[in-house]
Amino acid sequence: MVDKAEKGVGRVWASENDSRRTGVGTFLRTCNLDELPQLFNVLKGEMSLVGPRPERPHFVGKFKEDIPRYMARHKIKSGVTGWAQVNGLRGNTSIKERTKYDIYYVENWSLAFDLKILFMSFFAIKNAY
Prior knowledge:
mainly alpha; 40% helix; two-stranded parallel sheet; 6 helices; globular
């Protein structure tokens, strides 16, 4: 993102033709390389490889009031990738749908499910902006 990207527009999600993006940022996002720094959070034990994607605190406060069972997705650590993301629900997509997928993941977790999500993550480029 460009310097002071949210100045004037406030807190918003990135969109497909977002004028706040830089060329390098667009490349990193399209190739999912922007997620690599989060591996440090995994190594520190703050995140998991697979789990519901974290949201910015500003949005969590709003979603927990508006979306039933939203906070159930916080029962486990956030992940670098998740069931919602590999099914195309990332970026400017329905938070209600993402929450359904996240809760499904929390309630149906297994090692095999994690391995499936990790595999699918290599091919998940829909809504990568």
